[in-house]
Amino acid sequence: MSDFTSNFWNLYIVILTVAALLFCVWILAVVGKREEKAASKTTHVWDGDLTEYNNPLPNWWRGLFWALLIFSVGYLIYYPGLGSFKGLGGWSQVGQFDQEMRALEAKTKPMYDGFLAMSAEDLSKDQKAMGTAERIFQNECARCHGSDARGAIGFKNLRSGAWNWGGSPAEIEESIAEGRTGVMLPMGEALGGSDGVQSVVAYVRALSGLPHDANLVAQGEVLFDENCTSCHGNDARGMKEIGAPDLTDSDWDYGSSEKAMAKIVEFGHNSELEEGAFAMPAHKGVLSTGQIHLLTSYVWGLTNK
Fold first, then answer.
1. For residues 279 and 271, is the Cβ–Cβ distance under 8 A?
2. What is the pLDDT of residues 19-42, one digit of tens each?
3. Residue 297 vs residues 73, 91, 118, 151, 176: alpha-carbon distances, Å
4. Which of 21, 214, 230, 256 could lock 252 by a disulfide, CB 3.0 to 4.6 Å apart?
5. Against a cut of 0.90, is the pTM above it?
């Protein structure tokens, strides 16, 4: 937003608010002068003898209006309400939120620190601890991995047992704390175009037991050995050091159809830079060390009962 636009809306809010308060003061002052006169009859009569009088407002009622106006002025001086004016009290929604979060963290820290003394394996057997861990998962992880942790296109299925970056408790904890960014280089040109891509796709599908064109497998294997083993390994089982997935299992983050696999092989993806791709964000600034350790136990326990 430009400075001009920001200043315009700031002045607009200030002028509108002050004008509304002054208008209320004027109304009360005018009404107060008129009500100094004696009560008079109106032309409203019901049932022949029931007459409406124009009586002045009770003093306590007018006093209440004045008190509310004075309170409003004091409120706008102490709290933010007049455009970009932050108020003399220094209060803000963000500050209030941070204060409450610090209080909550101080209250729960001893409990989470206690979990650090237990191994992930032992924690995964503690039903009470896992109940807490599941609530953390639903709050922090379900939006990507699903409430059942089975993921979606572009989001890892945490129940599959396939781990691109390693599935030990230490490796899972590092993934949660530090985040992960997956990169697949575009291989369309290196494979000689669409025909080469289709051959490699056929070979990879054969490795994982998916339906494939058997006539393309031999050529696909040659192209795979020449272009893909540096990341996925000679046996196509991946390299967890760089997050290259195992291509021999049944877990496919971006879909297992021929079309989906061909798209990834030809164009690649970068989950940090590419629009529509998804990176695993670091949670060490969002969750405490104890919470991350507890969450690690929960995720590890999904496939290690």
1. yes
2. 999 999 998 888 777 655 555 666
3. 54, 39, 10, 18, 11
4. 256
5. no
